[in-house]
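TL;DR need structure tokens for one chain.
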Amino acid sequence: MCGSLQTGWLLCWILWCQFMKRWNDGLEYKKPGPALFNSYALYAYDSVWLAAQALETFLNSNGTVSYSNDPKLRDVNGSTLHLSSLRVFDGGQKYLDTLLTTNFTGLSGEVQFDSDKNFIHPAYDVLNIGGNSFRRVGYWSNHSGLSIVAPETLYGKPVNGSLNSNSKSDEHLYSIIWPGETSETPRGWVFPNNGKPLRIAVPNRRSYLAFVAKEKNPPGVRGYCIDVFEAAINLLPYPVPRTYMLYGDGKRNPSYNDLVNAVALNEYDAAVGDVTIVTNRTKIVDFTQPYMESGLVVVVPMKQAKSSPWAFMKPFTIQMWCVTGAFFLLVGSVVWILEHRMNHEFRGPPSQQLITIFWFSFSTMFFSHRENTVSTLGRLVLIIWLFVVLIINSSYTASLKSILTVQQLTSRIEGIDSLIASTEPIGVQDGSFAWNYLVDELNIAASRLVTLKTQEDYATALTKGPKAGGVAAIVDELPYVELFLSSANCQFSTVGQEFTKSGWGFAFQRDSPLAVDLSTAILQLSENGDLQKIHNKWLLRSECTDSLNPVDENRLSLSSFWGFFLICGVSCLLALLVFSCRVYTQYSRFSPHEGGDGDGETEDIRPATRAPRRSLRTTSFKDLIEFVDRKETEIKEILKRKHSHNSHDSKRTHHSGSPSDDAGGAHA
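>> reply
TL;DR here they are.
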């Protein structure tokens, strides 16, 4: 197979040489240099030979050349084309079949067709053209696809799809040299900037060099902000030529307001670094999507809290203490009301009953109450309350243990409000927008602000304090503060909440298309996790390992227990409602004048006809209180006797009205 292929290509080369000799000899007008042909001329030459050989074969096989009229060709009214005069070759189909079966080697190579009338083994050279020269980087054929191996050597070998499966090196082309003498595949049109690279200003910082800093060897820039910008640039569908230019002398942090103004004045095309997006800056430049959240916070020195004789009060807030005490009294009173009528332990003189209420209420805190509950409603309320007390005791014990065993931190400054109210000096990072914000927005006197240049200045100023020439607190952006606290040995901490919300972005001149495209790229970095990886590379630091917590961190407030108090309160209310309905039912069947001294020993039960029951409207409040104060057993006994007495009177009335009684009376 390979021998026949080599013979065919050798024959093709001989024919080509003979053709070129005849062509050059037959030219009447010759230009200097050799005659040049493109591939289309060679295919045209072979097509003529193909038609001639097919016609010769057609005639040798007893084919005849004859024509006939085609009924489909008719002249339209008024037409001058005379289509009806055209004739159709009668042996056309046979001639086409002969043409498709013709096989020969021409100037363009082997000429042969398959059953689908497609050219067999078409092959092309893949050329890499650069300037006035070109180089072959591979081949293409419908058998092997793109390959660096000549197609004729792959015919007859197994393939995978359209690529050669015998060798992995056969599945690609040689390296391509792109314009600009680079082997890197271009991503599209170059960003239009008059052919010049972008002038990107980078702040030459003195402190917090993890965000952005000058690279000494090799010269350049580095840092978290630079890596984010480079990662976003690489996601753009076009290259962006750029040049980083340091802004500032490196002896102190540059003014970021001046940096943004320089971009607006066309001194730079963009600013890349830890540039905060604030309102006055967005009026003169365009920012990208924020790639890091930021906000102003307050940093203060923390001191270990001294032990206090009132430390046992710290686990609960004042509100929690008040509500808990109120519920102790409430539950004690409710249980007394429910138990008073049937439990002798809840009866006695008023002073004794009052003491019983207080004793029972607060003794449930330690589950040491000695009074027994006998009523169903009282037991229900007490069970729910004991469950609440169990939760409160457990939480109180855990919180108190944490407060007494863990070192606590305290600070006179509790947040930005207390800092504004004081007159002590405040530290601000050099070049930060925090200076203008504190003076213009919060109306803090500029004389109170102290500029700090390095992280060492932060620690020194906070350690000294305002009395020794330092500061009471530092106001700075959260990313800087987190980096500072990670290396401050847990001596300092933030207090309060962030009192501004902003972010860091890249600044461009107004209407720059890069701002929009980079915003999309930053969002893509955030979604695929690359932004977090860059953050971990530069800013991941060990956290504070000391057990230092703010004083109020372990205090329990009412918000953690209001659900328990609600359940307990609802159960007390429902128990009182059921108790009231029960008392109301009994009182409606009871007449105060039917009872004696209240002990049941000298009761005077009169007939109902002589002492009719009074309505509830005519009953005095005193009578109601006296009824409620009676024992449950006494009330039930009175109602039972009253019911039996009424039944006896009914029987006597019935017998006095009978005829035998009348006769007996007459006989007497």
